[in-house]
């Protein structure tokens, strides 16, 4: 993977896990992807770091010492990360690789999830997905849109809990993947439009700059000066 960066800054990730081995595996996996990585051993230390520094993403275990939740500190980390920095994407690490555990993590506010044991290729895939969202003009708004769209889908799944309507784990997993892919496609299309807007903005800025240079050479009170003033004014308004 190309060195991840957002607006020229290294992609910063906080790893939170009370198990030293799991924490080290996650840290090494992320650093192999050239992330600027820090670690915390429980929810309290993670919250302290989140209050002092900005991270693009947090990868946190769910079951560990917490502040409000004694044995599910990952929930406290999610809550604080979302409140302190809405642009931060939280990945919940779960002990079971069932689709229900993934859905639970997402309902709690996680952007995505990883199932133990975590594999290197999974870290790479999750990182690429987060990076695509972080590289938009307004990551906080983009992630909020993602969560809103996904919440609507999860609500539909919730309605299928009746005995006669119960969906199999395989069906849930397939539907969840379709939903994730659809949301990602929508966000990628929005990012493409943002790139077009940025290109147009840069072009307008150049036009305004050229008009200002020409204005200095135009005779005072002339038609040319008036025309250039209109170009500069309209370009500034649209910028």
Question: What keyword list fits this structure?
Answer:
elongated, 8 helices, alpha/beta, about 240 residues, 5-stranded parallel sheet, 7 strands, 2 domains, two-stranded antiparallel ribbon, Rossmann fold
Can you give a write-up of this model?
The protein is of the alpha/beta class. The chain has two domains: 1-135, Response regulator (Rossmann fold), CATH 3.40.50; 168-239, no CATH class. It is built from eight helices and seven strands; from the N terminus they run E-E-E-H-E-H-E-H-E-H-E-H-H-H-H. The chain has helices at 20-31, 43-52, 73-84, 99-107, 120-134, 139-158, 169-217, 223-238, and strands at 5-6, 9-10, 12-16, 36-40, 57-61, 89-94, 112-115. The strands form two sheets. The protein has a five-stranded parallel β-sheet, with helices on both faces. Helix 2 (43-52) packs parallel to helix 3, helix 6 runs antiparallel to helix 7 and helix 7 (169-217) runs antiparallel to helix 8. The longest helix is centred in the C-terminal third of the chain and has 49 residues, at 169-217. The radius of gyration is 23 Å and the shape is elongated.
């Amino acid at each position: 993977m190309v060195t991840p960066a957002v607006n020229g800054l290294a992609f910063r990730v906080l790893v939170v896990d009370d198990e030293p081995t799991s924490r080290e595996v996650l840290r090494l996996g992320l650093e192999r992807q050239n992330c600027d990585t820090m670690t915390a051993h429980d929810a309290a230390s993670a919250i302290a770091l989140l209050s002092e520094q900005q991270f693009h993403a947090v990868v946190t275990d769910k079951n560990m010492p917490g502040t409000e939740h004694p044995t599910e500190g990952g929930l406290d980390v999610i809550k604080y990360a979302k409140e302190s920095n809405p642009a931060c994407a939280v990945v919940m690490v779960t002990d079971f690789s069932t689709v229900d555990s993934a859905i639970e993590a997402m309902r709690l506010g996680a952007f995505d999830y990883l199932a133990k044991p975590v594999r290197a290729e999974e870290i790479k895939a999750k990182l690429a997905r987060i990076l695509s969202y972080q590289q938009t003009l307004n990551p906080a708004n983009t992630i909020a849109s993602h969560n809103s769209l996904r919440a609507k889908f999860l609500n539909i799944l919730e309605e299928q809990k009746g005995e006669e309507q119960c969906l199999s784990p395989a069906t849930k997993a397939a539907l969840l993947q379709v939903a994730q892919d659809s949301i990602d496609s929508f966000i990628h299309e929005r990012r493409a439009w943002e790139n077009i807007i940025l290109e147009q903005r840069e072009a307008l800025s150049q036009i305004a700059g050229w008009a200002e240079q020409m204005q200095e050479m135009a005779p005072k009170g002339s038609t040319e000066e008036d025309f250039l003033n209109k170009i500069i004014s309209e370009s500034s308004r649209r910028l």
